[in-house]
Design a protein that fits this description.
- The structure is a homodimer of 252-residue chains.
- The first copy, chain A, has 252 residues and is α/β, with parallel strands linked by helices.
- The first copy, chain A, has two domains: 64 residues, Beta Barrel (Ribosomal Protein L25, Chain P); 163 residues, SPOUT methyltransferase, trefoil knot domain (Alpha/beta knot), CATH 3.40.1280.10.
- Chain A is 29% helix and 25% strand.
- At the A-B interface, helix 2 and helix 7 of A face helix 2 and helix 7 of B.
Chain lengths: 252, 252
Amino acid sequence: MRQYILPNNFKGESPFKLKGKDSQYFTRVLRLKKNDKILARDKNGLSYQLTVLEFDKSSCLLDVVKLKSGESFESTDELPSFVGDYPKLHLFQAVCKGKKNETIIKMATELGVSSITLVQSEHCIAKKESSNTDRYEAIVKEAIQQSGSPIMTQFNKITTFKDFVNCLNIPLLFFHQINIDEKVSLKEKLKDFDTSTPIGIFIGPEGGFSDKECKILLDKNCIPVMLKTNILRAETAAIVALSAIHTLLMEK
Amino acid sequence: MRQYILPNNFKGESPFKLKGKDSQYFTRVLRLKKNDKILARDKNGLSYQLTVLEFDKSSCLLDVVKLKSGESFESTDELPSFVGDYPKLHLFQAVCKGKKNETIIKMATELGVSSITLVQSEHCIAKKESSNTDRYEAIVKEAIQQSGSPIMTQFNKITTFKDFVNCLNIPLLFFHQINIDEKVSLKEKLKDFDTSTPIGIFIGPEGGFSDKECKILLDKNCIPVMLKTNILRAETAAIVALSAIHTLLMEK
């Protein structure tokens, strides 16, 4: 079931009026009509029951009822979703060229990652991606809505490799084309983790990590992983790595 | 390690001359120079050791030595690959709109699926994708080269749902948003399979499978799977489903 992310200017008021693009998303993409109901979340992840009171070409008036945690609600959106615990995956993605970042951000959000942080690493070809933060945040928001994700994926501003490593406070798996400890399976590497443990996942850029970066990550006790497959493009690597870990944790 | 797929006019001769686009791929994308060596495969999957004898702007002359199965070879391409058995996954993908098919075909080939077949199903929005076969075959070829995949992924022409079901001769998992047997985990559904078993994976179009199609698939003993995650777009669903099954079979 899809959901609606309320705009930042929503302060809990009912009725609440959507205008312009926000209203168009509601009536044209979600195709909601008078009396239709949908689940909504605000920027803090709090849940609301929305009911369409009236709408026209440029605006949409909504009845808003705040929901308590776990309280049931009605939705006229048909697609059902998985209900249950999600792994707490935090994606750290070395900046890629152009549209690749968008593909990665969109797919990772659909899969329900907790956060996405772009990292500037040595072999990154793209240098100035920080200016796209607004665009990336919009992609995250739309992916949450379309996928009905219960996880309010947090998009963090781009950071340097050095700052990233210094601030790291969760276990991190980094995906690398060279197999450093090939005898240990991915399943074994995840044996101490479950869906309640925050786990960082670090994916290199098109050119992979440098030897220096690998050494720094190993010195910080980060866990190297080589996927048992071919050489993947950066965007494929990100979604395959996330899916692999998501699956192994969910199927434990 | 990447590899080169020899053009269809190659008949085993040495030296062999590449011209035009084929030559440009060799010298500009793979960036091979005089005396550089690379692994090549012909359209039947047979392996060859290539050595660049000479090249100019429009052509490239290669020394060709046929390799026996498992025979060692030299490559000046640095990126290492996973060596081992791959699952025998056959992707059946309901036709999606526009570029989505390309994304799916590219990612699935990188992951080393054995074959890809597009299927026309009831909720498909795109109706005339059969004309793009040449383009899709070119995407498969390039993805095999770039990913160094040892699997010569076969691209099959578009088929109807009816023909697909009637010709089905391998176990099939189909991915569906409604959980038909939620108590059985994906791992359990895969318990009789390993990397030597051919497995079909059927992914619906943007609108999912119809109730009628689901019933036909269940009647044919196909296995329904609901991914334990959000509502995924068709292209994300394909790669997540393939990754999940690839991982569970490789980590057995």
